[in-house]
Amino acid sequence: MSNQNTVSTCLWFESGGRDAAKFYVSLIPGSTLDTSADGPEPMVVPFTLAGQRYSILNGGDMFGQTPAVSIMVTTSDQAETDRLWDALTADGGQESRCGWLKDRWGVSWQIIPAALPSLLGATDRAAAERALQAMMNMSKIDIAVLEKAAANHI
To answer: What's the predicted TM-score (pTM) here?
Structure first.
């Protein structure tokens, strides 16, 4: 028996899902819009972000976005963190705390530099705690500030 099941995340939008999906795939390398970019707005908009399958359901105003579901992106460095953060908070997006934000459609994102888990999980627990305390005061994650805090240079 062949297993043909696939798994993807479906985001409920009131409308305008294709514009959101086009924006998302423009930001994340290795991403594709898996439907026509033109024509009438489809009810379901399939797309792929860095190999992960998603769909947006243009389902009306019955449900809204919630931060209980977020898209987490691990970034390679501060420049990539800044690029994504700035793009996603532009045009009505909202900064939150500790690397979290909402984009202009209300979708929650976590923009997490790859350095963050190692700083917070350091075997030097005092250094890890200093990094954690520094992070708690941030919106966008600033790797240099976290590294200084961990090294006790703040």
So the answer is: 0.92
